[in-house]
Amino acid sequence: MSDFFDLLRNQPAFFISMATLLGLMVGSFLNVVIHRLPKMMEQEWQRNCAELHGQEAPTQASYTLVSPRSACPTCNHPIKAWENIPVISYLLLGGKCSTCKARISLRYPLVEALTGVLAGLIAWRFGFGNTALAAMAFSCCLIALTFIDFDTHLLPDDITLPLLWSGLLWNVGGGFTDLTSAVIGAVAGYLALWSIYWLFKLVTGKEGMGYGDFKLLAAIGAWFGWQLLPAVILLSSLAGSVIGIGLITLARHGRNVPIPFGPYLALGGVAALFFGPQLARLYLP
């Protein structure tokens, strides 16, 4: 085992390859999280509502990240091991179920490929060590949050809060910033969007964003410190504006249809991960 770790440490190309392979496998699991976590939350809400009204909770099959076994949503064909190889299985199956030939969403290989590429880039950027592992964990959380927000306009506490606390813990030893900057970043990140939310609501009477956005920006602040919050907010707002205008003009997206902000915050978080010091130097002495 020590020889394997020595090879990872001393051969950057090998480490990048292994990180990419690991990212592909983790991406397959992220697809499960993206699909199942909102359904698990819905079941929990139904149980809580029933309990609050003194009613019997609805009888439902247990639904977790590991059970029941993954199956085709059209014909309920159980997914076999060879059908679950990241990206490759999708290509071998021609993007269709092996039994009923129903189309498989392109989302699945895209998430796997995105996770793999991002893991490889992190391995190239940070090299072998704990920093790369922490950065990979951070990026995986952002990928899951991005696609869950696209689907449901939700940013689950089950991901945002552990992401926030892990950022503070990582910086206890001076991971990406010092602990003081991380704590201030968490507080300032939450309050920045919280203030915008209430200002917008007081002026328009409408809710411009959700509380999950506050927590996600707080988590990014906890990971990289208050110094990078202006850059993250600016990049997120810029990306959201450009893509939002494009959706309205080109895809005929209704002006009154909400657009999730979490994916753009995640984009800002990835920019902070790779280019944090360079971004900070643009406006800090």
Structure characterization notes:
The chain has 285 residues and is mainly alpha-helical. 35% of the residues are buried. The chain has helices at 2-10, 12-52, 88-92, 107-126, 130-152, 157-170, 179-204, 211-224, 229-250, 262-280. It has ten helices and no strands. The mean pLDDT is 90. Helix 5 runs antiparallel to helix 10.
Radius of gyration over alpha carbons? 21 Å
The SS-based structural class is: mainly alpha
Number of strands: 0
Amount of beta strand: under 5%
- Given the structure, what is the number of helices? 10
Q: How far apart are the termini?
A: 45 Å
Mean pLDDT: 90
The main sheet comes to: none
Shape: globular
Please mark out the parts with pLDDT under 50 across 5 or more consecutive residues, or reply none. Answer: none
Helical fraction equals 55-70%
* Order of SSEs: HHHHHHHHHH
Brief summary of the model shown:
This protein is an all-alpha fold and 285 residues long.
Give me the secondary-structure topology.
Blueprint: H1 2-10, H2 12-52, H3 88-92, H4 107-126, H5 130-152, H6 157-170, H7 179-204, H8 211-224, H9 229-250, H10 262-280
Helix pairs in contact: 1-2, 2-4, 2-5, 4-5, 5-6, 5-10, 6-7, 6-8, 7-8, 8-10, 9-10
Which key features would you list for this structure?
285 residues, mainly alpha, 10 helices, globular
